[in-house]
Amino acid sequence: HTYALTLAYDGENYLGFQYQPRDAKTVQGEVEKALTKITGEDRDFLGIQASGRTDAGVHARGQVLHFYARRPIEDLARFQRSMNGVLPRDVRVMKAIRPHPAFHARFHAVRKTYHYYLDTRLTMDPFLRRHALHVGWNPPDVEKLRRGAECFVGTRDFSAFSNKPRDKTLVRDPVRTIYRFDVNELKGDGLLRLEVEGNGFMYKQVRNMVGAMITAATSKKMQPADIAAMLEGKDRGVAPMGAPAHGLFLHDVVYPRELLE
């Protein structure tokens, strides 16, 4: 029996989503422990696969995973409550469904949306310190941020904005499609929310794009037009590495409707 969960979690205390041996604390590890307790299945049979592997410190509001169970779960609402009663308080199951038996959380994802938050106030909001990058000491030019974001929209080779994968044997196509990259000013609280939606993202691509945009919007050494040149040349050169993890959220993952029913 195939089941899918939508998770929200604060990634500050975790070494990313993916399970790691040697007692490393990961989101997947906590979910597996809860599932094993409730379903009685071991981690090998559960076969958890997520829509993507968020890195250490990255948060999620809409992470999706699937798992398998030998026996059907008769009451999914009760199952969701049971999971949230066992999981740590910084990980929550927001939704539990029984999708198509062939559903795969990673391979069937058709769109993903990430949000990145910037706190532009001179004095950092202490309640946002774990969930937004404070840039109040040198606030970015919002129009330059938008011009930088526009450079990424479309189907492009993102070699310049991806890091080498942790798995050295993995070779991935660097061509991705970005459907939109919006810069939104949240009224009244000094926050900027960068929203990027695409058909998929390379390793650390979103953080590298955001890092380049911030540099182009705050430094005289780099302009938004330089981002287009980096894409064309497939080389980030001496541009700064990615923006810190704590401002990034996996916001939403979209699947074909017929696979969710």
From TrEMBL:
Its EC number is 5.4.99.12. InterPro entries: PsdUridine_synth_cat_dom_sf, PsdUridine_synth_TruA, PsdUridine_synth_TruA_a/b_dom, PsdUridine_synth_TruA_C, TruA/RsuA/RluB/E/F_N. It catalyses: uridine(38/39/40) in tRNA = pseudouridine(38/39/40) in tRNA. Pfam families: PseudoU_synth_1 (PF01416). The active site is at 55 (nucleophile). GO terms for biological process: tRNA pseudouridine synthesis. Keywords: Isomerase, tRNA processing. Residues 8-107, 150-256 form the Pseudouridine synthase I TruA alpha/beta domain. The keyword Signal does not apply. Substrate binds at residue 114. One of its GO terms (molecular function) is tRNA pseudouridine(38-40) synthase activity. Belongs to the tRNA pseudouridine synthase TruA family. PANTHER family: PSEUDOURIDYLATE SYNTHASE (PTHR11142), TRNA PSEUDOURIDINE SYNTHASE-LIKE 1 (PTHR11142:SF0). This is tRNA pseudouridine synthase. It comes from Micromonas pusilla (strain CCMP1545) (Picoplanktonic green alga). The lineage of its organism: Eukaryota, Viridiplantae, Chlorophyta, Mamiellophyceae, Mamiellales.
